[in-house]
Amino acid sequence: MKRYFTIGMAGHIDHGKTTLTKALTNVDTDRLKEEKERQISIELGFAPLYEDEEIQISVVDVPGHERFIRQMIAGVAGIDLVVLVVAADEGVMPQTREHLDILGFLGIKSGIVAISKIDRVEEEFMGLVKEDIREELTGTVFEDAPLVVVDSLSHKGIEDLKELIIHTLKEQETRDVKGAFRLPIDQVFTVKGQGTVVRGTVYEGRVEEGQTLTIMPKGLEVKARQIQVHHKPAKEAFAGQRAAINLAGIAKEELERGDVLVSSEHFNVTNTIDVAIRVVEDLDYMVKQRMPIKCHLGTAEVMGRIVFFDRNELKEENGEILCQIRLDEEIVAKRGDRFILRRPSPQETIGGGWVIDPKGQKYRFGDKTIAELEMKKVGTPGEQIVAALMEAKSLSLDDLITRTSLDRDVLIEELNSEDFVLINGKEYTLRALIEMNEEDLYNRLRDYHTEFPMKQGLNKGELIQEQAKLYPKLLLDFVIEEAIQKGTFKRKAQFITIGEFEPHVPKNWKTRTENMLEKLKSDEMMVQYFQDYLAASGIPDAVVIDLKKFLEEDGQIVSLDSQYYWHGDIFRGAVAKLQAGTGTEFEVGDAKEILGLSRKLMIPFLETLDAKGYTTRVENKRVWK
């Protein structure tokens, strides 16, 4: 499948991030008037960088000014690679170091250093500049990152940087497009004539036009009316892409940065998270027990308090600290999510880490609680199995042993839980994945029935076409068969439908169709062209094909040829009359005498008898079967 990535431009104010972004993408990401006037980036700026059949890459230009550090955190939290822009004439600045700390806490592992403004430094000094930058980056995520020398105005080194970005990302794993959709919202606005639009980076999963979604933590249901990726309409958006989604059913005032757009209710809404944190090396102030902090997770920025269980204060610490964050407001979080902690006043980055348990409880102070958090940090066998299956969707027992390194007996015992399901005696999956896929397939069928009420349903291949890009066929087959057994779905010949669905003429054409059938029946066997009946009843051409097919499949009309149709009752009456008036076989003349039909309709009628299996033609006679 095609893979999608977002890269970030980070660094000190006035080191040339926005200019470099423009040189790479030919897009000016400074869009606000005050940004132009002050020549700094206040909001996140996004631009498309590269696309081919294999990957699509977007760029986010992250604000560099200290006052706008919260926007930087919101932007960086959704990216896969960071280009650290360092001006050749200034080097690594204090604010750059804070950005580096944040990148480390957020788990960014992939980076490139772009040395900008090289026209301000003599060429013979560039070696010293690189050496100085390399030394300043020791111990950070950019310690071994490649250095690229660029000049955004002359475009020197721009193509080299672009090629390095593309090559690096092609070697990198992408985000999970198979899981439930999640997009932390970083911008909310309205478009005249369209309504409310939200924008953000798709953290995981995928979303498609028309899909019903939920705004968390508020629990508001919305519909994705339209999707855009870099100002271009798109039917769907995938993990790693920047997306703008036009939402139906909600006003702009009901939303804010920090809300999360999701496709599943399995995401946790919480105000207490158990966490593992690290702190910056040079804290200016002591961190004390239950001290107010500002927590940045995804695009959310929430006040709270830090709760220690093995200390009452903290100034210097090189290792990981297990503790708890109790927030003043609810957020959406899951195990493994990264976050940043900042002191609200005086402002400074304290540290950051990852969520061990999004549903933290109240614990006693002491070593026992730390031991319990250590166990949580490693993860229970069940959590490890869930993590493996969320990634792979279904795995055999041997594959699960390989992925989790759990003992076979422990694994088998854990798999007895109702959370896990054995598919056809071959592979295990999660009950949650089965339920999620059943819901998606149900919604697909429901929408299809609404759009095409006269059609029998979808064949299995069409039904699972989109899901098959994300899930193994073994799993999807199981979901469908289980739903059929429960009565949620129904199989009719090769078609799958919702259990309660029956093909039907939609209400707006029902009366006209009944009038047309009544007229057709009243003309008995001496019918006009079928198109004349349709036209006289005011049935539009747009529905004729589906209507004829439905009425034929339902036995209400019978086609003699492409032009003449009989009412189903008339056709069946003619067959019965002909059978009663003949023996085991008959000739055309016999039929004509019994039914009184002209040759124009007699020949098509007899050929229809052959086609439907009533008779077999033998030379000039027809034999009843």
From TrEMBL:
<keyword id="KW-0251">Elongation factor</keyword>
<dbReference type="InterPro" id="IPR000795">
    <property type="entry name" value="T_Tr_GTP-bd_dom"/>
</dbReference>
<dbReference type="InterPro" id="IPR009000">
    <property type="entry name" value="Transl_B-barrel_sf"/>
</dbReference>
<dbReference type="InterPro" id="IPR015190">
    <property type="entry name" value="Elong_fac_SelB-wing-hlx_typ-2"/>
</dbReference>
<keyword id="KW-0963">Cytoplasm</keyword>
<dbReference type="Pfam" id="PF09106">
    <property type="entry name" value="WHD_2nd_SelB"/>
</dbReference>
<dbReference type="GO" id="GO:0003746">
    <property type="term" value="F:translation elongation factor activity"/>
</dbReference>
<dbReference type="InterPro" id="IPR004161">
    <property type="entry name" value="EFTu-like_2"/>
</dbReference>
<keyword id="KW-0547">Nucleotide-binding</keyword>
<keyword id="KW-0342">GTP-binding</keyword>
<dbReference type="Pfam" id="PF03144">
    <property type="entry name" value="GTP_EFTU_D2"/>
</dbReference>
<dbReference type="GO" id="GO:0005525">
    <property type="term" value="F:GTP binding"/>
</dbReference>
<dbReference type="GO" id="GO:0003924">
    <property type="term" value="F:GTPase activity"/>
</dbReference>
<keyword id="KW-0648">Protein biosynthesis</keyword>
<dbReference type="GO" id="GO:0001514">
    <property type="term" value="P:selenocysteine incorporation"/>
</dbReference>
<dbReference type="InterPro" id="IPR004535">
    <property type="entry name" value="Transl_elong_SelB"/>
</dbReference>
<protein>
    <recommendedName>
        <fullName>Selenocysteine-specific elongation factor</fullName>
    </recommendedName>
</protein>
<feature type="domain" description="Tr-type G">
    <location>
        <begin position="2"/>
        <end position="173"/>
    </location>
</feature>
<dbReference type="InterPro" id="IPR057335">
    <property type="entry name" value="Beta-barrel_SelB"/>
</dbReference>
<dbReference type="Pfam" id="PF00009">
    <property type="entry name" value="GTP_EFTU"/>
</dbReference>
<dbReference type="InterPro" id="IPR009001">
    <property type="entry name" value="Transl_elong_EF1A/Init_IF2_C"/>
</dbReference>
<dbReference type="Pfam" id="PF25461">
    <property type="entry name" value="Beta-barrel_SelB"/>
</dbReference>
<comment type="function">
    <text>Translation factor necessary for the incorporation of selenocysteine into proteins. It probably replaces EF-Tu for the insertion of selenocysteine directed by the UGA codon. SelB binds GTP and GDP.</text>
</comment>
<dbReference type="GO" id="GO:0005737">
    <property type="term" value="C:cytoplasm"/>
</dbReference>
<dbReference type="GO" id="GO:0003723">
    <property type="term" value="F:RNA binding"/>
</dbReference>
<dbReference type="InterPro" id="IPR036390">
    <property type="entry name" value="WH_DNA-bd_sf"/>
</dbReference>
<dbReference type="InterPro" id="IPR036388">
    <property type="entry name" value="WH-like_DNA-bd_sf"/>
</dbReference>
<dbReference type="Pfam" id="PF09107">
    <property type="entry name" value="WHD_3rd_SelB"/>
</dbReference>
<dbReference type="InterPro" id="IPR005225">
    <property type="entry name" value="Small_GTP-bd"/>
</dbReference>
<dbReference type="InterPro" id="IPR015191">
    <property type="entry name" value="SelB_WHD4"/>
</dbReference>
<dbReference type="InterPro" id="IPR050055">
    <property type="entry name" value="EF-Tu_GTPase"/>
</dbReference>
<dbReference type="InterPro" id="IPR027417">
    <property type="entry name" value="P-loop_NTPase"/>
</dbReference>
